[in-house]
Amino acid sequence: MSAYAYQPYDYIAPAGLKATEPRHKVIIVGAGPIGLAMAIELANHGVLATVLDDNNVVSVGSRAICWSKRSLEISDRLGVGERSVTKDVTWKVGRTFHRDKEVFNFDLLPEDGHKMPAFVNLQQYFVEEYLVQRAQELTIDLRWKNRVTSVDQKADFASVTVETPDGSYALEADWVIACDGARSPIREMMGLEFDGELFEERFLIADIEMQGDFASERWFWFEPNFHQGQSALLHKQPDNIYRIDLQLGWDTDPEVEKRPENVIPRIENVVGHADFKLDWVSVYTFQCRRLRSFVHNRILFAGDSAHVVSPFGARGGNGGLGDVDALGWRLAAVINGTAAPEALQGYDRERCYGADENLLNSSRSTRFMSPEAGVERLFRDAVLHLAARADFARPMVNSGRLSKPCIYPLDAPDADLPEDARPGAVAPDAPLEHGWMTEVLGREFVLLVLGCDAPEIDVRVVKPVLTDMIRRRYLGDQPQAVYLIRPDQVVAARWLSASAAEVETALVQSWNG
């Protein structure tokens, strides 16, 4: 019996079973965290999507658990950020061990002055539950047990066939967003394939419920004494749930390894006792792959349907929320008539770039954790040996470079100002007199004006009191600056001073990424 109560959502017979429905603006396939977040983000911009899901419960098992500071900032804009950090287990310290000796540790957010913590652990089923409730508050049309069985598209719309417990029906939409996971049926129906690498390695994931005194930290072991595999990982989650990942080797049988009589002794070796309850078990393989393009005329891909990575580094769910961040404002502008469909190519360029960054980091982590015999293994073992003795080797230990927001390579005006706030980067958070910087940026283009007057242009202006922290993060040694911030809180351009014409030009360029 799971510690979490999986409550089913009500299936309601859709209107399309009895009569042809009017063409929808957007259909989202998949009510996981990315599909739900996409629907809410579109609603924030005045576009109500219809969400189709073949199930009627949230995801079973913890699945994605590590949510980055940037993902929490996005979640806050979606209306579930504060609830998430109230429930979660917050952490910022990670420790890496070789056998029984600690060789490396890190602190993710040593600097104060951010609304959200560096990383939190929160089971995916809680995230989905909060997003469902928020979507319901926004009257988003959530259709449970509505499985898409076919998809087609014309020049200016797409159509899907949907199977329900009461029969099948058809829907048309201006746009369809596939958020239907790593085994995306939409991707398969369209004959699209991933490019990339499948690693021949298997890991066991187990959620256990127990009363424990483990710190709220990320603990990773190479060649632990308690497990004959090559690595192990332990994370603490809310409600006394602990997540354990154990490397098994490619030659193991997944079905055999998932049997309780085989899982329980392994967990006992990790936690040192048998006083726990097995909550969920799965076996997975590594993949680092993506679609060549995320935009296919009227059908768009986001999240795991567009790209998949190994779980070490927490780049899956966090990368998917990055897709939501980059697509929502653009698609809403196209639908509302303030941007041409070509603006979606900016989404494709930026998120393909972001996916490639995640794939590169994930592949490097995977190779360090599962080195091939020969040079790779010799290098990995030498680094671990040195890391216990020499400071220079410790940053080379790679148990997963943790997710952080991608910095897009924008061709944009860029003054001599702090690197962390350069074009393409997410605007840094900072406390204001009332609230936080991330609370006043987003949903629309904003001119952030610091220490000078704003040019006369029809863009919302934010002009905060210049605290030491804002000066340090946005001005450096300069007395003033003007920043153009996109609706996804990414810096689009910056100047020491700017004319209205310069801002207008940067606004036009911002759509293309």
Outline:
By secondary structure, the chain is of the alpha+beta class. The chain is built from 13 helices and 23 strands.
Helices and strands in order:
Layout: E1 24-29, H1 33-44, E2 50-53, E3 66-68, H2 69-78, H3 81-87, E4 89-91, E5 93-98, E6 101-107, E7 119-121, H4 124-137, E8 141-144, E9 147-153, E10 158-164, E11 167-178, H5 185-189, E12 195-209, E13 218-222, E14 231-237, E15 241-247, H6 254-257, H7 260-271, E16 277-290, E17 295-296, E18 299-301, E19 307-308, H8 316-336, H9 344-369, H10 375-387, H11 437-440, E20 446-450, E21 460-462, H12 468-475, E22 481-485, E23 491-495, H13 500-510
Parallel strand pairs: 1-2, 1-11, 2-8, 5-13, 11-18, 20-21
Antiparallel strand pairs: 3-7, 4-7, 5-6, 9-10, 10-11, 12-15, 12-16, 13-14, 14-15, 16-19, 17-18, 20-22, 22-23
What can you see in these coordinates?
This protein is an alpha+beta fold. Among the domains are: 15-89 and 121-193 and 292-356, 3-Layer(bba) Sandwich (FAD/NAD(P)-binding domain); 419-510, Glutaredoxin (3-Layer(aba) Sandwich). The chain contains 13 helices and 23 strands. Strands 1, 2, 8, 9, 10, 11, 17 and 18 form an 8-stranded mixed sheet that branches. A hairpin with a 2-residue loop joins strand 17 and strand 18. Helix 2 (69-78) packs across helix 3 (81-87). The longest helix is centred in the last third of the chain and has 26 residues, at 344-369.
